[in-house]
Amino acid sequence: MNVQLSEVVFCNPKVAELKQSAEDLGRSAYSLVVKVERTILSAGTEISILSGEWGQSVRFPFSPKAMATGRIVHMGTAASQIRRDLHVDDRVLLKGRHSSFVEASVLTDPIVKLDGDTSDEAALLARLARLVERAASLCDQKDARILVLGLGLVGQLLVRACRSKSYKNVTAFDPHPKRRAQAKLDSYCVLETRAYPESDFVFVANSSVDAVQQGLVTLAKNGRLILLGATRGSPPIDLAHTVFRRNIVIQGAHEQFLIAGSDAEDELLRTARLIDDREIETSGLIKNLDSRGLPSLYKDGLSCKDEYIGIVVNWC
Fold first, then answer.
1. Residues pairing with 227 in the sheet
2. What is the pLDDT of residue 112?
3. What are the structural domains, with CATH classification, of the chain?
4. Which of the 8 DSSP states describes residue 109?
């Protein structure tokens, strides 16, 4: 099907535009096409990647990907046979190009059907909420000393998850004042400097290699350092002294995104309902933005990324 596509494209580092083009999507019998309604991005993460802060090569022009909700407008003949639960006009959650239309393959791409009671915002946040709930569950001691490094969208969700589990000794830090202020509004113990207390669990909720190194240093013997995202760069870790002699465990909290029809998909939908019912609290974390405002967000974002925690983009 022929569509007029609006897509976020980075022509150069820190320079984004909404590129308009006519494209023919859905030519494969195994594909479906979704008209995007909303996408979510984590301002700090995406801006850091595309500013070159991650220290990894990005070839330009570069088109980022995003989690999206929208409605199916086309299904190939084979796609209809394989995913009999999906039909044209169904609302779905999927990951694809950061654009007004997304093409996906039913053979390789996770596509989740949304019911009418699930809001777009809850669906977009559910994957991150599941991640932090899983991470928080790795701590099995109510009185453990917990340190959260990074108060972006993932970090803010994590400290709220710790509170919901009644952990008594949670401390957090972020270099950006407004992110610290948001956490203080929620009655968390927020440090103003990097004077970290000795901790049993350190959750690294940002992409800073320094946070990994600092977290390792502050861990008590037999402690755990838990990564909630990919770090940029390589921390200079003395494995023999820092890890083995102190019996420290380093582990990740990520899991495979989704397999259609799996228990993971059902769990994501249950998590979205908890968000809608405010049993998982997300107030104050999301700003809404019209898609036409994306270029200026990326243009100005490096100087004011602490203004944003999570952003939902409206493409309608």
1. 204, 252
2. 93
3. 2-126+256-314 (3.90.180.10), 139-252 (3.40.50.720)
4. S
pLDDT, position 306: 60
The Cα 269–Cα 262 span in angstroms is: 11
Q: Quick count: other Cβ atoms within 10 Å of Cβ 14? A: 15
How far apart are the C-alpha atoms of 6 and 71, rounded to whole Å?
Answer: 16
Residue at 237: amino acid letter: I
Angle between helices 43-50 and 294-304 (to 10 degrees): 90
pLDDT of 54 reads 54
Residue 253 CB-half CA count within 13 A: 28
Closest by CA to 297, choosing from 2, 10, 1, is: 10
Q: Which residues of the chain have pLDDT under 70?
A: 42-57, 186-187, 207, 230-236, 239-243, 253-263, 300-307
Cα–Cα dist 51/140, whole Å: 38
Cα separation, 33 vs 285, whole angstroms: 30
CA distance 306 to 122: 22
Summarised one tens digit per residue, pLDDT across range 252-305 is: 766 554 445 566 788 889 999 999 999 898 988 898 999 998 888 777 655 555
Residue 141 has a CB neighbour count (10 Å cut-off) of 12
Strand residue runs (E) in the chain: 2-12, 15-24, 31-42, 65-75, 91-97, 101-105, 111-113, 145-149, 169-173, 189-190, 199-204, 219-227, 249-252, 286-290, 310-314
Total number of residues shown for the chain:
316
pLDDT at 91: 97
Give the amino acid at 70: G
**Backbone phi, psi, residue 41, to 5°:** -140, 150
The whole-number pLDDT of residue 186 equals 67
Closest CA to 149 of 112, 119, 124, 179: 179
